[in-house]
Amino acid sequence: MIAEVILRVAGFERFNGQVPYYPRPSYGGPERCLRAICYEAQGYPKRLSDRFYAILDDSSWHEELTLDILRKSSFRLHSEQMVVECGEVIHKGYPFKIKGRIDGILTDLSGVDRLLEHKAINHFSFERYSQDEVPVDYLSQMTFYFVGLSKINPEIREGILLMKNKNTSQYLEYYVDYNLAEDVLKVREVIRSDGVRREGREFSGLYRSSMERFMEVERHRVEGTLPPRQYDPGDWHCSYCSFEELCDSSYLREFSSLSEGREFMEIEGAVRRYNELFTLRKETEREIEEAKAAIKGVMKAEGLKRASVDGFTVSLSLQKRRNLDKSLIPVEVLKKAEREELIEVLYVKPGGLKREATRNETDRSYS
Prior knowledge:
Blueprint: H1 6-14, H2 34-41, H3 50-71, E1 76-78, E2 83-91, E3 94-101, E4 104-107, E5 113-121, H4 123-131, H5 136-150, E6 158-165, E7 171-179, E8 184-192, E9 197-199, E10 202-204, H6 206-223, H7 236-239, H8 244-256, H9 268-301, E11 306-309, E12 312-315, H10 331-337, E13 346-348, E14 364-366
Parallel strand pairs: 5-6
Antiparallel strand pairs: 1-4, 2-3, 4-5, 6-7, 7-8, 8-9, 8-10, 11-12, 13-14
Helix pairs in contact: 1-3, 2-6
């Protein structure tokens, strides 16, 4: 009763028509799809689900909870949602001042001010960033705020990107400093709330490349063109995109216009390496299955389900796996549940274009 209406209410409450595109710090990062930004800049309608608005509100409340805790700490939190001017770029043919709102500034007991940027993210993203991936888009956004703060307080060169796991309430901190003159952002350290730490890395030109992307969006807007897809059809980025359906339909036309039959030696090295790795993968998979069968066969013959082998522990276990029996689902229900998606598949065949492959040759294909 409630589950069916609650998201609709959230969407209805927030809906106020299409929000026009303008260059802003959160759009500057390299991971945000440039093609999607160009759709938005050219006025294509966005398809936003009611759940999208609920997610926005959810993240805002998580941020407020975090800031409330920080207010009780030894840090002094101030300048919340302060507007800063982050640069100028051409937008719709005129100079446009990019502005952003910082989450706040943290002042420690020694009087050092640091920029604070808070993000509430899902568990899977949190785990990726906890390991070795880096939230480059969030760090790019921070460079805009550093540029803006330099006009107010040039002494602020350090910052904290604080990410909260919305599922587990764990925190992940990226402790950074920014060299404005050289456009170099250095992640000094990555710290988890459970005490796990790892070294950071250095990024050069994040702000500059973001501004170049905004100029590219303006060029496409003027020319009425679109850049190539940044992600292959079916990528998880696309499944969250407001322009997925529109992009897939236009991409079908673009793909059909691609030429074929040309000698293209520029990718010779990559093609040869791909073929070598594909062959190696097939051989490795076969050898793994053969070794697995040998191990299981001997253990069963000896009546073992767990054994110690020269420093290794080998065990057999039974697990239950749930699968859908489609024969029990009405055909009309199955059809409604089906979703058609575009995927790109790469084929690498032995021989040149003029030579027809025989039937016993195996395609090297990857989606």
